[in-house]
Amino acid sequence: MAKHYDVAVIGAGAAGMMCAAVAAQRGKRVVLIDHAACLAEKIRISGGGRCNFTNINAGPANFLSQNPHFCRSALSRYTAQDFLALVKKHRIAYHEKHKGQLFCDDSSEQIIQMLRAECAAGEVSWRMPCKVGSIEKRDAGFHITAEGGDLTCDSLVIATGGLSIPKIGATDLGYRVARQFDLQVVEPRPGLVPLTFDGPSWEAFAPLAGIALEVEVSTGSAKGKNKAQHGHFREDLLFTHRGLSGPAILQISSYWQPGTPIMIDLLPEMDVAEELISSKTTVKKQLGNVLAQWLPARLAEGLLTANGFAPDARLADMADARLRKLGDAINRWAIVPTGSEGYRKAEVTLGGVDTRELSQQTMMANKAPGLYFIGETVDVTGWLGGYNFQWAWASGYVAGSSV
Questions:
Q1: What is the predicted pLDDT for the residue at 283?
Q2: pLDDT reported for residue 204
Q3: Phi and psi dihedrals of 220, rounded to 5?
Q4: Residue 323, Cβ density class (10 Å: 0-12 exposed, 13-18 middle, ≥19 buried)
Q5: How far apart are CA 77 and CA 82, in angstroms?
Q6: What is the pTM for the complete model shown?
Q7: Which residues lie closer than 8 Å to 238 by C-beta, 6 or more apart?
Q8: CA-to-CA separations, 163 to 208, 318, 322, 347, 353, in angstroms, rounded
Q9: How many angstroms separate the first and last alpha carbons of the chain?
Q10: Is residue 249 within 8 Å of 191, Cβ to Cβ?
Q11: Across the chain, what does the average pLDDT equal?
Q12: How big is the chain by its Cα radius of gyration, in Å?
């Protein structure tokens, strides 16, 4: 006989454990199933091992989705302050880094143990490691074939995450289940990921690996109905051997569309052309030395070479039009990435189960009563900085409250 539960949650990550704990503490008989041997590896490695567990500024504007209003209900019903109250209840010391990002003082392991304790308080059953075979809808709920014995449940929650970081066990199970039940899936792609460049446009910049500086980066206006969904960030940028990384690039990568440029302002505090032109009569230096006052010297030289300027040319000898061209190259550097580092390096997966298929109040699939999708499996993706964890907690909470 298959063992029966009120609720089965597949995926014991952030959203799955949150959902299981909330449902179990309401008195539901809950089983949590995961194929991994090591619990919540994505929580463990996040934030450099200290888990950037939420952002106190989290709101709908910090999320991307084909339906940007979908996340509003869950985020308002379970806020960053609600999760913070749980962290304080478990006496986990934390600190705020810049822009509202909250981290554990000690270790991300504390967040995992907190979620385990919350599951234990509701007597959640565990199946782990346990691979799921097939899922069938039956009159009274769902039948799941799984290692260690089949089981049935009234409500089934899919919290299997996205495709990011395959080496820690990412799979496409969530999308397969959605398609099995005839739900639309927004094509997944890597998000919060370094961008890569090749060919002649990158030759001058490849030797600059290791240089970092604060920049403004944007994608410009997106076309059509998603006009509001184009990005603009002021963060640190890092040159790598293969392209660009750092928080500025991870942020903009989620908005970038293949084949289009990103715009980078390398000196956002300064109108470079105006500064150079007004300095012509008073500054007797070479161009390379002038730029090196404002930018890392290697970067200054690389930019001059890439744009056809001799670093040893005298500023006083340069025509205004040439200096305006140089100013544009620094304040409005437009460059087209050839790709990204892919799921291997992506922190999240964009796309997922189409939110139009789900109730924003409960996360249940409209076409399949009793079937829920939460967390990264869904087409809701947060910015870098704790936002994706807040979506995991909020979507897990609303599903756990309604199963």
A1: 86
A2: 85
A3: 75, 180
A4: buried
A5: 9
A6: 0.94
A7: 210, 211, 212, 244, 245, 246, 249
A8: 31, 51, 47, 10, 13
A9: 24
A10: no
A11: 95
A12: 25
Backbone CA torsion sign across 151, 157, 163, 166:
negative
Residue with tokens 């450099």: 48
Residue 383 CB partners (closer than 8 Å, separation 6+): 62, 63, 251, 254
Question: How would you classify the pairing of strands 30-33 and 3-10?
Answer: parallel
Distance, in Å, from the CA atom of 86 to the CA atom of 82, rounded to the nearest integer, reads: 7
* Three-point CA angle 340, 343, 346, nearest 5°: 75
Give me the mean pLDDT over the 102-126 stretch. Answer: 98
Asked whether the beta carbons of 235 and 246 are under 8 A apart, the reply is yes
Residue type, 24: A
Amino acid at 194: P
DSSP one-letter code for 260: S
The residue type found at 345 is K
Distance between CA atoms of residues 341 and 27, nearest Å: 44
Residue 290: which H helix or E strand, with range? helix 287-291
Report d(CA 310, CA 300) in Å as an integer. 11
Report how far residue 196's alpha carbon sits from residue 5's, in angstroms, rounded to the nearest whole number: 47
- Give CA torsion, residues 119, 124, 125, 129, to 10 deg: -30
CA 181 to each of CA 3, 65, 274, 284, 403: distance values in angstroms, whole numbers, following the listed order: 23, 21, 60, 72, 18
> How long a stretch of residues is the chain?
403
Backbone angles phi, psi at 156, to 5 degrees: -125, 125
Q: What one-letter code names the amino acid at 202?
A: W
Burial of 86 (0-12, 13-18, 19+ CB in 10 A): middle
Report the C-alpha gap between 233 and 223 in whole angstroms: 19
Is the CB of residue 244 less than 8 Å from the CB of residue 238?
yes
Q: Kindly report whether the peptide bond that precedes residue 129 is cis, defined as omega within 30 degrees of 0.
A: yes
CB count within 10 Å of CB 49 equals 13
Q: CA triplet 348, 352, 354: central angle to 5 degrees?
A: 145
Which residue shows structure tokens 């600059």?
208
| pLDDT of res. 227 | 42
Report whether pLDDT(187) > 80. Answer: yes
DSSP state of 314: B
Tokens of 47: 């934030």
Q: Are 65 and 380 in contact (CB under 8 A)?
A: yes
Q: Cα–Cα distance between 10 and 374 in angstroms, integer?
A: 10
